[in-house]
Amino acid sequence: MSKIIKGFSKFTKEEKINWIAKNYFNDNLKVVDIIKQYWNSDEQLQQLHDDFIENTISNFYLPMGVAPNFIINNKDYVVPMVTEESSVVAAASLVAKFWSTKGGFKTTVLGTTKIGQVHFMFAGNKQDLTSYFNKNKTELYAATASITKNMEKRGGGILDIQLIDKTDQLENYYQLHITFETKDSMGANFINSCLEAIAAKFRNDEIEIVMSILSNYVPECVVRAEVSCKIDDLGGENPQKFAEKFYQAVKIAEVEPYRAVTHNKGIMNGVDAVVIATGNDFRAVEAGVHAYAAKDGKYTSLSHCTIDNGVFRFWLDLPLALGTVGGLTALHPLAKLSLEMLQKPSAKELMQIIATAGLAQNFAALRALTTKGIQHGHMKMHLQNILNQLGANPQEKEIIASYFEGKTVSHSAVVSKFEEINKKKINWVDFKNETSLRELLTNLEIETPAVFGKMNGQQMVEHLALLLKVSNGKIDADFFVDEEKSARRKPFLDSDNELQVGFKASMLSEEPVPAKFSTLKDSIEDLILQIDNFETHFKTNTSENHPFFGELDYEYWSKFHVKHFTHHFKQFNLV
Fold first, then answer.
1. Using CA atoms, how far apart are residues 70 and 525, in angstroms rounded to an integer?
2. Is 265 a catalytic residue?
3. I need a labelling partner for 208 at 20 to 30 A (CA). Which of 7, 113, 163, 546 fits?
4. Percent helix, strand, coil in the chain (nearest 5)?
5. CA-closest candidate to residue 491, choices 560, 429, 422
6. CA end-to-end distance (rounded Å), the chain
7. What pLDDT, on the 0 to 100 scale, is given for residue 381?
8. Spatial contact of 353 and 345, defined as CB atoms under 8 Å apart
C-alpha cells in the first residue's frame, strides 16, 4: 500500500506526528512520546523554532559547551561550541590554556570579498557580447541601487562586475562574475537579490540566463590564525622531538590527500562547532573550506608548520563567509546569546575567533596523534558516553573511570567491566520466599513513585500476577515463537543479566492495565496465591509458552520470574 500523501504540509503538527506514527511505526505511542518530549514548554519559543523550517515535528538537541581561556590578539574569550562529538570542547579548552601562557593566538583577516555569478548562454559573436557588456555595465550597477543603498551606507555593496568567458569548458557558456562586500552580514539574500536584478537588466533576445546565485567558494574572504613560540617552550620530555614529529605530521597532510581529508576534518570539528553556535551556515562553510583546500589542483592540508631557527610556528588560512546580523543569528535565542558571549563581534572578528577554534582543534589532534595516539584522549572522553548508554550511576562511573586510568578504553571493555560490577551486587528477588516477599512489599504504596514506566504500585503487583498466570496456564499466551528465536533468547535466562528498561512482551498493552482489585492488599494476596499456583501447576505440567522466550519448563519459568520480580521491585526502589 502506497504511503505517498497529498497535503501533508497543511496538517497540524499533531496530525503530522500521528500520520508518521501510524504509517512508519505501527502506531507506536512511545514514538509520539519521544517526539513530544523534545518540545519546548514555552509555546512562543517552540513556535519560533517551528517557523525555522517546514513540516516541523520536534526539536533535535545538540550539546552546547564552552571552551574558556582563549586569548586572540591579546583579548580574552570564552568560545561557545555546539557539537555531539566527545573530546572536541575539552581539546579546544586544553589547547587554549596551553597557548594562553605563550602569547595566545594571532589572527589577521586577509580579505572579505564574496562572490556571486550570473550564468548565461550566448551563441553569438564574443566581441558583440563584450561591447554590450561594457556599454551596459553602469546600468547593471544602477539596477541594484535600491538593494545596495543600505549596504553601501555600512561600507559594503558591489565591488566589481566582470564578464567571464567559459566557452573553452562549455559551449556558449559565459558568466557575470560579481564581487561583493557585505560587512557584518553573511549576505546570501543580499547577494542573490542583486544578482537577480543584474540578470534581469542584462538579459536580451540573444542572452539566455540559466541561473543567478552566490558562490560558497570564497577564496578572497580569508582569515589567518597562528601560534608560535620557541621550541624549548613547547614543554614535555623532548620538545625538539615533539616539534619535529608535529612538523612531519603536517607535511604528510600537505602531500597525502587521504590524510589531508581527515586532517582537515579535525579542523572543522572546531570550526563547525562555533559556526553552529552562532547561527551561521556550517554547510556553506564546509563546502567553501574543502574547495579552498583543493584550489591548487590537489586536495591538501589547510594548516602549515615550520620549525626554523629554534622557533615553532603553526598556522592556517580559512575562507569563512560569516554573519553576525540577520538570518538565524538574529532569531535563535542561543545564537544571539553565543554572539553576546563572544562580546558582540563584527563579522571580521567572528572569522578570527572561528579560525582560531579550528587551529586549536588541529593542534590538539596532531599533538595526540604524535604522542599517545588519538584514541587515548578520544576514548577517554567517549567513556562517559558509553557509561551513560549503559545507565551507570555516579558511583559506577567513578569506579569504571578509575579502572581505565592508564588503560586502553574500548566499548567492549567498558561493557565487560560494567557487567562485572553489576554481577556482584544484583540483589535478586526470591519470589518463592513468601516471608521475604511480604517484607519487601510492606514498603510499597499505590502512589509510590516509579523510577521508570507508567504503572503505579498496585498495577505493578497485578502485572507480576498476570505473568504468573501465564506460567500457570490460566491465561492463554500462545504467541508463536519459532525454535530458532527461542534458542537464541533463552540463554539470557541462564545469564546474570537483568531485564532492560522497556522490555515488554508482545501480548501486553502500551498503557498500564487498570487495577483489578479494590485495594493493594488484595492485589498482594492474589500475587501470593499465583505463586502457590505456579508451584502446584508444574507438579503435573512440563511446560508453558512464554510470549517472548517460547516454551519454558519449570526451571526456566522460575528464572524468568526472578528477573521479572527483580526488575519491577527495582522500578519502585523495593530492592
1. 66
2. yes
3. 113
4. 50, 15, 35
5. 560
6. 49
7. 61
8. yes
* DSSP letter assigned to residue 506: T
Determine which one of 281, 349, 526, 544 is catalytic. 281
- Annotated catalytic residue 281: yes
Amino acid residing at 220: E
SS3 category, 166 = coil
All three cell numbers of 348:
571580521
Residue 296 makes CB contacts below 8 A (sequence gap 6+) with none
Let me know if 85 is a catalytic residue: yes
Strand partners, 65: 81
Distance, CA of 259 to CA of 228 (rounded, Å): 24
User: Would you state the pLDDT for residue 503?
Assistant: 66
pLDDT tens digits, 250-294: 999 999 999 999 999 999 999 999 999 999 999 999 999 999 999
- For the whole model, what pTM was predicted? 0.69
- Please name the residues in contact with 15: beta carbons below 8 A apart, sequence gap of 6 or more: none
* Cβ neighbours of 88 (radius 10 Å): 26
How many separate helices (H) and strands (E) can be counted in the chain? Answer: 22, 12
The string of DSSP codes covering 331-398 is H-HHHHHHHHHTTS--HHHHHHHHHHHHHHHHHHHHHHHTTT-HHHHHHHHHHHHHHHHHT--HHHHH
Q: Report, as ranges of residue numbers, the positions in the chain whose pLDDT lies below 50.
A: none
- Supply the Cα-derived Rg of the chain in whole angstroms: 33
Among residues 85, 256, 430, 551, which one is catalytic?
Answer: 85
Asked if residues 289 and 264 have their Cβ atoms less than 8 Å apart, the reply is: yes
The answer to whether 315 touches 304, Cβ cutoff 8 Å, is: yes
Query: Of the candidates 284, 289, 346, which has an alpha carbon nearest to the alpha carbon of residue 319?
Result: 289
pLDDT at 55: 96
Cell numbers placing 540:
503435573
Residue type (1 letter), 379 = M
294 phi, psi to nearest 5 deg: -110, 15
Helix axes 257-277, 333-341, angle to 10 degrees: 100
Annotated catalytic residue, options 114, 183, 378, 568:
378
Residue among 82, 67, 109 nearest 275 (CA) = 82
Identify which of 181, 217, 223 has the alpha carbon closest to the alpha carbon of residue 352: 223
